[in-house]
Batch of 4 targets.
Target 1
Amino acid sequence: MSGLDHVRHLACVRCQATCAPGEAVYVCPECGGNLQVVYDYEAIGAKWSREALVASDDRSIWRYAPLYPVAGRIAAPPVGWTPLFETPRLATELGLKHLMVKDDGRNPSASFKDRASAIALVRAQEIGRDFVTGASTGNAASSTSVLAAAMGIKSRIFIPASAPKAKVAQLLAFGAEVLAVEGTYDQAFDLCLAATEQFGWYNRNTGFNPYTREGKKSVSFEICEQLGFELPDVVAVPVGDGNIISGVWKGFCDFHALGFIDRKPRLLAVQAEGSAAIVNAVNGDGEIREVSGETVADSISVSLPRDGEAAVKAVRESGGAGVTVSDQEILDAIPTTARGAAVFGEPAGVTGIAGLRRALEQGLISKDERVVALVTGSGLKDVASVMKVSGEPRRISPDPAKLGELFG
């Protein structure tokens, strides 16, 4: 595809109003709701086939370029095409017969969020912006700083002062200007929006910039390909702002509209008990209501989800469900995942896996179904939380003569 002739318009998730891409940078001009890119699938299908996709030797998100609302790409570092593999030991531990893990901690910034930043930053460049800002608990920020550095774009990031130091270190190492807000993620988000309006910086914020969802959907394309277009029954997703799960659903819908797949999986939304606005809405009347947002899983700590409406719609359209898990269950899932699947995830990263046990207990999934669980961030992102459940090393003498006392 050349240019953006395959993009029909942007459509509002809330009021369904439409506008051309050039008429709105971020949200719906009519009601302020989140926008979604709508494609001309007939035009895309006339120039791109499943066979052409399979024949591609590109092992990054850019193999799916015909389904993005940008004309360019980032040459390096490579984003996406992360491993998806069977985890029989972890499956047995959780009471499942078929469990696969998609390890997105293998991305350049060790986070799923690189997918979103790649598309959003290319969009920024294409409309002539060379200064990017965003608010984040860490992962969206670090992915923005990594890719901005690769593209020669300046970045200024708002984070809550409580963000894990490992994530802050990434931001600083890649040259971002970091502003630690003495408040919550939601306050940092609102402050970033105010700065965007006042100074005209390009805003990459999740659930505000419609192009982040377009990057996140690439994980679904990869799942389809890596499973030979034989779809799983369920995809378990950690949920905070709701932008990942809405993107996961959009990816499956895109491929289905093109005829690349003949069905779509159910989505399992998993949230921490203190940050469960989306799951509450899924299991209730569909309305997003503010919660405390308190959880050990900083990457999904959100009081008022910014892409909540699209997330609820995605779960319900998929015929899926939502569950909540305690902070202790989230922490326990770190060593469980590490020892059962050899994947080291941060608290938010393994929240989807933590929810599988609960979903089985509630009859939302069955032990015989094929399940894919997304691990969205590396455990190296939040070592302090990992140590809470992993314990401390034994301190021993360097004297060889003492070994017998220890192990004899």
Target 2
Amino acid sequence: MYTIPPKKMLILNILDILKKYSDENHRLSAKEIGERLEREYSQKADRKTVKRNLMNLIDFGYNIEYSESVRINKDGEEETILSDWYLNREFVDAELRLLIDGLLFSKHIPYNQCKALIGKLEGLSNTYFKSKVKHIRTMPEKFPENKALLYTIEILDEAISKKKRVQFYYISDYGTDKKPRLHKNKDGTITTYKVNPYQMAATNGRYYLICTHKYYTDTVTNYRIDRIKDICILDDEPITPAREVPALKNGFDLPKHMAENIYMFSGEGVMVRFRAKKYILKDVLDWFGQDVRFSNENDDEADVNVRVNADAMLYWSLQYGEHIEVLEPAALRARVGAAARAISEKYL
């Protein structure tokens, strides 16, 4: 038998109606709220009761907006009418859509977790917002997933806050069976990584750990967090302070690090000069940021000077090979040329 909700639930049901059906473009009168109360919650409430509960919700701290108007009642007296009630939300629809898009474009969050997170974000808005995004979903999972990704991020965040080292195994490859292969030492044993974690960064749809090794602190290394397995904090091992790391002695500049490591390869950046067609300069700025310098400009081309990881620049040059020419350093130019010839020979 259906049970009619107790009167003490009335204020919660009114709040639920505001959450589901109101926003700045969809305002409700006290009469409309009363009609929904009766239709959806089997509760009857007159306009005065609805108004009183709405004002109580405002007193409790809920950000509820309304409009005021004045009318003359049947006794010829002025009467203030409150209407157009709606819940002013912490996130506007555009902000929620931006967060959902970030999840849709991510490559590192497993499909089921992504779907659940999108559902939670949709719940922060109303039924009208849900109708706008119901036709947009992530593609079914196509990438090998690490279901412990969010846990790994949580552990890393704690380790960085406590300035403690972490230990983990690392997936270095996949076989034709689509199963992960952990990195191994020369003797065939699985490699145990002990690193000093300094920062996490998200780029190209993936999370990366920026760190140095326990015994080799000269080079800053990047690891994909979705490939980290069985992580734990080494509570008895504090990290090597950044000021003692040659590459970090002047402080860690994340935007600079990201610009120099566009594919998140490890290693120091080198000064590179390449000739680029002007129509791809927008791509150059997208990849390398605002610190690039242009020179030797003419109507069609310009030289680009930038500090970037040499391995990353090699791959980027192959990606944009039709539109750019690496000029310096000579060693990098030779590597790009050799790679381009090797590719060309396969299509002869």
Target 3
Amino acid sequence: MKVIVLGRNGQLGRCLIDQLNSTNYEVILCGRDVIDIGDLSATTDLITMTKPYAVINASAYTAVDKAETDFEMANHINHIAVKNLAEICGKQGAILVHISTDYVFDGCAISPYMEDAQTHPLSVYGRTKLFGEQAISRVDCQHLIFRTAWLFSEYGNNFLKTMLSLAKKRDELSIVSDQTGCPTYAQHLAKAIVCALSMLKNDTSLYGLYNYCGDKSCSWFDFADEIFSEAKCLGLKTPKKVHSIASSDLMTIAKRPHYSVLDNHKIYKAFGIKGSDWKNSIPIVLGKIVDSTKK
């Protein structure tokens, strides 16, 4: 069976390639250099000609702050293109796997968000991602939507790699401590997607919306502390001092939810998939990064 991966060059896309390599799927990889998912005609041609079992949409407009002044493009990629994908997949009988975000919530909760919790995004990015979710749900299309958070890995741009880069240049860093979420190893999310996709063959009642994120919550400050603790063990340069600051001190353009912890119980009950063990994944990622620099 054929599986199309859109966004092959991104962090999650590259992890999906790793995870799909050990399956029997015929994988068709597409990046922006191959196809622009915002191009309805090209996307329609790709899916109708390929006739895939599933389309995994790992592409998105993820520049949270830039989106505040670039609504048209963010909405085009995160909403309109997703709506088109759902309609095409529905007509072709292909499963659509789509990735969404914890930023669909406003962060006012005091306990982890379940899939049916009230959404209220604070940013353009969050709103356009929610519009994409809603567009899929309105189309007659078999689908899986995964809401995830704080992705990191050995690939692409992410918080862990940013911390390593900053540590090389500065002796002191200031990290936000009043935003709480769940770091997620992108390899674990990719593995969860592949696992869920294979299980749909036997139980079509499993389609729908699922949370998938780290198994423990923390602040960005706590996350950085874990990264630097492990980095130090590997002999990597770490800051002499890391300061805890409030979100208001950072003055970002887009508002972020102060609490965006997601509840993983539904995906565990449906597929037996546990949340990402992100703490034990940090040394794995750091090791891969160190090894890559030696080649």
Target 4
Amino acid sequence: MTARVAVLGGTGKTGRAVAAAVRARGAEAVPLGRAAWIDLAGALAGCDAAYVIAPNMHPDEAAYAEAVATAARSSGVVRLVHHSVASPYVPAMPHHLGKARAEDVVRRSGLAWTILQPGAYVQNFARRSDITLAYRAAAPFGFADLSDVAEVAARVLLEDGHHGATYELASFRATVAELAAALGSTVREVTPEAWARGGGAGLEPRVRDWLLRMFAYYDRHGLPVGTLPMRALLERPPRSLATLLGDGAG
């Protein structure tokens, strides 16, 4: 019987990539967007597993995860994979803490769970001639390639042996300055105050505040992420910066 996998948040870039990777492994992917929440248990009916991607900067990701877990249990889903973030328990970043709380919900769900914690997507910076940062460009990061993350997601959704596992994921390590130089992009550093008056001016105040806190943390510490878990799960080298540049960085 062909496995059936629901992808919550399936209309976004991550959801589309995960759904494509699931199909590439011969399974059926069921992308679910906002409309599915009218009857989430019904939308999940017949699915063996669910991949959970909360909306970006969700105000209460724990409640979101609880709703999905409840619907999954009632509809017979047995495997739940939660898309979290690298270093979720960082008190200085509220949206990371939200993911840490959601992870706690998933771990107590009674389902066969796995948690993925990807670093910043390299695709967030690709194909941009000018990159504006409200933190120092020399901060260290572990960048995750979206297709690598999607391939790992498909594996843990469809293979046994990942129940109870938490995997931090990065394809390569670099600074934004190094990434921009390789891409031929120009980096412009601005103060957080200037960003708040410019690019952040139209955002909801809560989201703007959370992003400013994130920038402050990045400025001090970056977001380093190890690459060994990605390599082990893929059973091949993750995509390197040179590889990404060679095919247009996604």
